[in-house]
TrEMBL record:
<keyword id="KW-0472">Membrane</keyword>
<protein>
    <submittedName>
        <fullName>Lipoprotein LipO</fullName>
    </submittedName>
</protein>
<dbReference type="InterPro" id="IPR006059">
    <property type="entry name" value="SBP"/>
</dbReference>
<keyword id="KW-0564">Palmitate</keyword>
<dbReference type="InterPro" id="IPR050490">
    <property type="entry name" value="Bact_solute-bd_prot1"/>
</dbReference>
<dbReference type="Pfam" id="PF01547">
    <property type="entry name" value="SBP_bac_1"/>
</dbReference>
<feature type="signal peptide">
    <location>
        <begin position="1"/>
        <end position="22"/>
    </location>
</feature>
<keyword id="KW-0449">Lipoprotein</keyword>
<keyword id="KW-1003">Cell membrane</keyword>
<keyword id="KW-0732">Signal</keyword>
Length: 562
């Protein structure tokens, strides 16, 4: 039975039997007016009388609890009870692989917990079926300042996801914009050796990649270097988030956004992968592959990272956090000097960066639960006390993420840019630790303390040779600081970046049954065109098939989503 039919049946039963059962389970308690004192409404206000909240969550079977503890009885549950007088009860706990199915069933049967953190697809479904509470006043009265700061940092891009007619319908687990910002990482030491400048556009990128392939930049006398490495066989050519080794910036230089829902010049919703700009990008990539500028083992390698660490690659694409992944190369002699750029530029001189959603997980509260502020308070406690729990050893076995009742990662959407700017001023002597407000920056103080120990003069040059590389990587902030000061520099300093968001990041009804096949069709077609086993004309055949096999219907569904 389709979800919509199941839901309709359940709702009908609920209306006919208001005090009975719905879909085989006792109906959720109807929401009644609850009078709380001002103290109880505050972000960390403790309830005078115990409040119970029913939740659901996943549990990794590999998580090991201390003796006598479990997902339902542990230090986090105790902390919530002690601090807030909230009793946490789990309606069910499942393995991570079963989560989507369990939550979809809960939504379709209208058999929901009091609160839950869900992805965008399920959040949209719960809004569609009028299952969740308006949290506007709850957020205003009970969200802590840090949570409010995270929400504010997302701006209009975030409110479009979370608000309906000005009402806050969820509390988003915000994530840094930089996480979805792909850029060009290039061997600066190779450029210097060959007397080249960092490329800014496609033609310059081709020239540099050709030099990296043909002019022996590693100096071993062999023609064994790779100009641009791309994704391995388990990777993707492009994505809707930060994609390591994806070729997203090359697509974006043609203003092509595969996987994105966009509006064309007439205001009509279109799918980025089927647009003429994507055909242009594929032709360019096919030319680059034919000329040997792209890795010949594109989508064939088991892993694209080993050639990078072995010093055989000149260019790859990825987000700011690549500084963590390539940290082994800092200790080589000499170290590889990877630098990041917002490149290649489009023909108009702008860098068009496709951006991921400013939040992908959302706290929602059952509209029938009479203490919606309890769920927000649990999040407040996480944000305030997680550092203390880690320091005390509470998280040493399970980790907060594996056991905290309503866990998600929250951060400022502009956190990396703020960190870059403050650290830059700090190294110039324009600000001090004493002058810095750390109330909305969880890791910044540690970054400021570490960069003084790890960065050598000149302080405004972040080439790898200007860092103290003698420290142990696993016990220092070096990979993180390189990621921020090198990896986030383009997003923090470039003025010609144009961010592009998708109109929709969830899953429509038709996508549930058709999307896997449509994605396979897309990926196979694009791979064949790039690697020369199919002509560029096959793109037009792909577009026709994509529309006929469900694409047109999906576009119609996305167009109707508010």
């Amino acid at each position: 039975m389709k979800k919509s039919k199941v839901l309709a049946s359940c709702l009908a039963v609920s209306m006919l039997v208001a005090t009975g059962t719905a879909c085989g389970k006792k109906a959720t308690q109807s929401k009644t007016t609850t009078t709380l004192s001002k103290a109880e409404q505050k972000p960390f206000g403790r309830y005078k009388k115990p409040v119970t909240i029913h939740l659901v969550r996943t549990l990794d079977p590999n998580v090991k609890f201390d003796k006598g503890e479990s997902i339902e009885k542990n230090g986090y549950i105790d902390a919530i009870k002690k601090s807030l007088n909230i009793n946490v009860k789990f309606d069910w706990v499942c393995a991570p692989g079963d989560w989507n199915q369990k939550m979809s069933l809960a939504i379709s049967s209208n058999n929901l917990p009091d609160a839950v953190i869900v992805d965008m697809t399920r959040y949209k479904a719960m809004m569609k079926y009028n299952q969740i509470a308006d949290l506007t006043s709850t957020f205003k009265n009970s969200a802590c300042d840090l949570l409010k700061s995270y929400y504010k940092s997302g701006g209009s891009a975030l409110t479009k996801l979370t608000e309906v007619n000005g009402k806050i319908m969820s509390v988003p687990a915000t994530s840094p914009k930089a996480n979805g910002f792909n850029e060009m990482w290039i061997r600066q030491d190779w450029l210097k050796k060959l007397g080249l400048k960092a490329p800014t556009n496609i033609e310059e990128l081709k020239a540099v990649a050709k030099a990296f392939v043909e002019k022996d930049p590693d100096g071993n006398g062999k023609k064994d270097t790779i100009g641009i490495i791309g994704p391995a066989k388990s990777g993707t050519l492009s994505g809707t988030d930060g994609t390591q080794f994806g070729l997203d910036p090359i697509f974006s230089s043609y203003q092509s956004y595969p996987g994105y829902w966009l509006k064309d010049n007439s205001g009509k919703v279109v799918y980025g992968s089927t647009q003429p700009q994507t055909k242009q990008a594929l032709q360019s990539l096919a030319d680059m592959y034919k000329e040997g500028l792209l890795d010949k083992e594109l989508l064939v390698r088991d892993d694209s990272m080993p050639p990078v660490k072995d010093g055989k690659v000149g260019v790859f694409f990825g987000p700011w956090w690549e500084g963590y992944n390539i940290s082994d190369v800092y200790l080589q002699n000499p170290p590889q000097d990877w630098q990041a750029y917002a490149a290649p530029l489009a023909s108009d001189g702008n860098y068009y960066a496709h951006l991921s959603a400013p939040a992908s997980n959302f706290l929602v509260v059952n509209k029938n639960y009479k203490h919606p502020e309890a769920a927000v308070k649990i999040i407040n406690l996480l944000l305030r006390d997680e550092p203390k729990w880690v320091a005390s050893g509470l998280s040493k076995n399970t980790g907060t993420g594996a056991a905290y009742p309503l866990f998600s990662v929250f951060d400022n959407v502009d956190e990396l840019e703020s960190s870059y700017n403050i650290l830059t001023k700090f190294m110039k002597g324009e600000t001090t630790i004493k002058d810095t407000d750390f109330s909305t920056h969880k890791l910044l103080k540690g970054d400021m303390e570490a960069i003084k120990q790890l960065k050598k003069k000149p302080y405004d040059d972040y080439s790898i040779n200007n860092w103290n590389l003698k420290s142990k990587l696993e016990s220092s902030n070096l990979p993180r600081l390189v990621s921020i000061m090198v990896g986030d520099k383009p997003l923090s300093t470039e003025k010609n970046i144009k961010g592009v968001y998708s109109l929709y990041y969830g899953q429509t009804q038709t996508m549930e049954s058709r999307w896997a096949n449509l994605q396979k069709l897309e990926q196979e077609t694009f791979a064949k065109i790039i690697m020369g086993t199919a002509p560029i004309s096959s793109f037009d055949d792909f577009v026709n098939k994509w529309n006929q096999q469900g694409g047109e219907k999906i576009i119609s569904e996305v167009s109707k989503i508010k």
